[in-house]
Amino acid sequence: MVSDHTELYDTAIARRYFAKFDRITGHLGRVAGEVEAEGRLTRTEARVLGRYLAGLNASFAALSHKYLMTGRTDTAPRLTFDRHESGFPVAQELMTMALDAAQVGKHLSGMASEAELKDRMVRQIVRDLTVPTELQFALSQRLYYEALAAGGLFWARNDPEAQFIAEAADRRQFLIHWAVWDTQTNLPVVYLFDVQDSGKKPLPNDDRRWPLVQQGLMAQSVGGLKLLTMAQGFDKDFAAIHPKRLRRLTLGPMHSQDFTLQSGPISDVLKAASAPDGQDWALVWTVEDIVSDREEEVKDGWFSTANRQIWKLDPVHGIDTGTTSTERMVILPEPVFQALVEVDAPGLRPYRKFVVGAAGQIIPAV
User: Fold this and answer.
1) Domain limits of the chain?
2) Would residue 256 be called left, alpha or beta, if left means φ above 0 and alpha means ψ between -120 and 50 degrees?
3) CA–CA separation, 54 vs 331, rounded Å?
């Protein structure tokens, strides 16, 4: 049996892996901009999503420093990633990064400065005519911890925040957003939750309700849980909070002939493309959405009533998926898109395509 997880053990391979993701994550913000321009994201939602995408890019940059010397020394760490239906680092990598960040001050205080390490490298090269491998490793680790100290990264768990949107009648409208690195799929997942609040205190200022809301949302943030189950449970647990729309954006998997094992039509497309390393990839982006159809007053106990949402389900697949709609998009370079058109795999026809042009521009495909 072939393991889904593998290590990057060679310097050149590790650097190619991070260079590939540097290109990919650089395109995601532009795709979000295209989706916003089409009216499928508000400006606030696009800005929130942009923060998570920038954090994802920063996390990959930090990990690229940590694993810069992979294969160059016996003690250099190796990145573990999920090469089957993910392509991303395993969740444990993000968890370890969070633990390192908690003690980043201790690590940096015990390290020589970047300038001092570079000076030592020059002196070793000139004096001993040897490659300063150990000093290079020390510098890579310093750069890693500096990246952690700078913050703004996508962590294994990014706790809920509430963004005030508007106020109407006796209700305030908030966008609650949070993100996780799903441990089952090894993929980054972002949640956008539109709610109305009829509580006495604004939700994020309510020290009684807000911690319970945060805890409840994080506890249910697993990929295998249907959005309908999450939305119904939240609606029942919090009487003065009225959920209206919940979206889950799964960023990935990433497919590449170089790094991942794929089956089905995407495998045929990548084989047909035979694209060079920098253009040998395709990234899938899935948006699940559940929307409240209306609000009804229902009996809640012997002598009381409560407002409950009636959720709109897709008439064809909604009962199975627990969503109003599910949309899959794929972002891919021009050579891979050309191969996709030639292969014309039925399984990929429903996917919305975003093509990365030669100059890096994003071209929505018809």
Assistant:
1) 5-150, 157-364
2) beta
3) 17
